[in-house]
Amino acid sequence: MSSSKREGVMPVQRLNHAVLYVRDVDRSVAFYREALGFRVVNALPGAAFLQAEGSSNDHDLGLFQIGAQAGPSSAGRATVGLYHLAWEVDTLAELDRVATRLAAMNALVGASDHATTKALYAKDPDGLEFEVSWLVPADLITDELLAGRTTIRPLDLARELERYGAHTRGGVGVSV
Question: What DSSP assignment string belongs to 75-89?
Fold first, then answer.
């Protein structure tokens, strides 16, 4: 029996959805629709539930409005808390499209090459950080690539597009 499976315990399979407190739900819905293509699947006064294109989840992101008076999140600077959420795209072409969109929205704050993961970092209108990433397909992961996970480098998206191709489907990487 694997060490991750105890008698009678079923392991977690994946993250189903995330919920964020935001100042203005309409503003946040507009941002996530424009930036990442989410669609509203349910809305209530002061709340919205969004789903990513192609998702089989009931919703992927819940947004709850707490008002304009809300202070900024101090997680990671002064308190413990969630650093960021990460969404995965299927191809480098899609990562490139998202990078262009986020840059045009002045939301892109960084781009990193984690060897087996190519990542963009952005902030939503409330300053909450999120990641959009492409994972190198498992069958293309080499020992050299695995060794590179100890260093974070700036992402050279043009080089990665040339190396892997725009339409190579990303996949589940090798666990650490």
Answer: BTTTB-----EEEE-
On whether the CB atoms of residues 29 and 40 are closer than 8 A, the answer is: yes
> 136 — phi, psi (to 5°)?
-60, 130
User: How far is CA 127 from each of CA 59, 61, 83, 97, 100, rounded to the nearest angstrom?
Assistant: 22, 16, 11, 22, 19
Q: Measuring CA to CA, how many Å separate 24 from each of 51, 61, 63, 122?
A: 18, 15, 9, 18
pLDDT by residue (tens digit) across 83-131? 999 999 999 999 999 999 999 999 999 999 999 999 999 999 999 999 9
Say how far apart CA 45 and CA 91 lie, in whole Å. Answer: 36
Q: How many CB atoms are closer than 10 A to CB 59? A: 21
